[in-house]
Design brief:
There is one protein chain. The protein has 182 residues and is an all-alpha fold. The chain has 6 helices and no strands. Helix 2 (41-57) crosses helix 3 and helix 5 packs across helix 6 (157-178).
């Protein structure tokens, strides 16, 4: 082993001893400081772990830090702020995500119910007697008045009214059995 390698090894050993001393001295006070703010033992442990990992990564600059205690408390405070900011963003994203999905689910559900209604109505209309079905379609699909329907089919307006009343009663009863919401 050369003289230079021996100096490096001694320097590394000295940095390791300094780091270990800082860790033993400040771990618990910093943990309690973080815990008071984040109110979670797991988060406080993670914060302290990340702070000491970062401290180890800058071990070559230990001699440039005037007050290690202040430096470590600032690191913990900054990390706590990062964690709280991240938690707030996560909550906001989660809220937006679930609100969006709730809206989409409701929209899909409404579309399905509407399709069921349309299919049930179409089947019920096809089961009407021929003249009643024609009167219903002229009234509800083409939007013609009772007088226009009566004139077109050469029947009285009261017959159109009676046929429409009977058609609607039948359709309501059939639709009610097929679609629970209507």
């Amino acid at each position: 082993m050369g003289k230079r390698e021996g100096i490096i090894r001694d320097s590394d050993q000295m940095l390791l001893e300094q780091f270990t001393a800082y860790f033993r001295l400040y771990e618990n006070p910093l943990y309690n400081f973080a815990l008071k703010t984040v109110q979670s033992e797991i988060l406080a442990r993670d914060i302290i772990q990340e702070v000491f990992i970062k401290l180890w990564s800058i071990r070559e600059r230990f001699s440039q830090i005037d007050n290690m205690e202040d430096y470590l408390y600032r690191m913990v405070r900054n990390k706590v702020m990062d964690v709280l900011r991240q938690l707030a963003n996560d909550r906001k994203l989660r809220t937006e995500y679930f609100n969006g999905h709730q809206w989409e689910d409701t929209n899909v559900y409404d579309t399905i119910v509407l399709k069921e209604y349309e299919v049930a109505l179409s089947e019920a209309v096809s089961q009407l007697p021929p003249q009643r079905r024609i009167i219903y379609q002229l009234s509800h699909v083409e939007g013609k008045s009772r007088k226009e329907i009566a004139s077109k089919l050469n029947i009285s307006p009261s017959t159109v009214k009676n046929q429409l009343t009977a058609a609607m009663a039948y359709l309501r009863s059939v639709i009610k059995d097929h679609v629970k919401l209507f």
